[in-house]
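@channel sequence for tomorrow's demo:
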Amino acid sequence: MRRAEDLAPELRVASSIMDRQVSQMAHLAGDLLDRSRIPTGGVRLQREPIDLAAVLTTVIDSYRAVFEVARHKISFTAPTDRITVDSDRARLTQVFSNSLHNATRYTPIGGRIDLQLHKEGEEAVVRGRWRCPHSRRNAHLHL
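structure tokens (generated this afternoon):
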């Protein structure tokens, strides 16, 4: 699909989403293998300075098609100052992807998902809340 020159714009978007999802699935498969290496100390983290807002934006973008199908409203707020952490990008992406997957899974059609990134002292905090428009119940996530 990437090589096709006359591909419709919708199919180009779908192809891009599929590329990201395949890459994510490859990381998840690797993570399953890593799980077996944890007891022996075989997991290697590739720590680097990471812009949390950029990672969250990438994960949110990978779920856009899911949001559209479920008619979910998504909001993401982050401070204008960059929040950087020394961490492993693949692990952070996995944590945020799993959390967003659960939010989309448990938010009824037409619901709302709100994500917020901010600092509390020296800590970076990601808060998530998802809810149904017809319910007073909310689910919260604090990472």
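heads up for whoever presents: The two ends are 37 Å apart (CA to CA).
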